[in-house]
Every structure is written in structure tokens, then in C-alpha cells.
Predict the 3D structure of the following.
Amino acid sequence: MDTITPLNLVVDNVTEMVSIFTDVAMGAGAAPLLILVGALLVAFSMGVFGVLTLGAVGNLFTSN
């Protein structure tokens, strides 16, 4: 009886996702540009909200 571990399932899904995104990113037209702009927007917003979250957590431990 084969058992499926959650880690193997996650790794398989991530590798499949990377191959699908690679196929789309290497497509014709504006697909590579759209994926690049989307990745930059996501990275920028994660950075901004990460800094805001760290500031809020730091504010909890400082006195007025």
C-alpha cells in the first residue's frame, strides 16, 4: 500500500506549476512581458506590506 505524504504532494505540484508557467512565459506575444510585470507588482507589494507589518510589530514592543 502506497502512502502519499503531504511534502511529496507539494513538491510535485510546485514542479508542475513551474513547468506550466515556463511554457506560458516563453509563449508568443506579450506573455513574457505580462508575467514579468506581474511578478514585479507582486514582489513590490509584498515588500511594502512586509515592511509595514514589521513596523507594526516593532511598534508593539516600543514605548511611547
